């Protein structure tokens, strides 16, 4: 990893890393939501039967 001595650049790098992390978290949340929806659908189908 490069050492950058200007504060602004270092802060920028941290921000980029945070963005990546937040994107990963968003993807994980979406997957969890999809799983929940599928479970709900299954329950609804079983109730109808």
Automatic annotation (TrEMBL):
Stretches for region Disordered: 17-49
Basic residues: compositionally biased ranges: 38-49
Stretches with biased composition (Basic and acidic residues): 17-37
Name listed for the protein in its UniProt record: Uncharacterized protein
Species of provenance: Octopus bimaculoides (California two-spotted octopus)
């Amino acid at each position: 990893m490069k050492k950058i001595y200007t504060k602004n650049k270092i802060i920028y790098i941290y921000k980029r890393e945070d963005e990546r992390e937040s994107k990963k978290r968003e993807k994980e949340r979406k997957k969890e939501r999809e799983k929940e929806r599928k479970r709900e659908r299954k329950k609804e189908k079983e109730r109808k039967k």
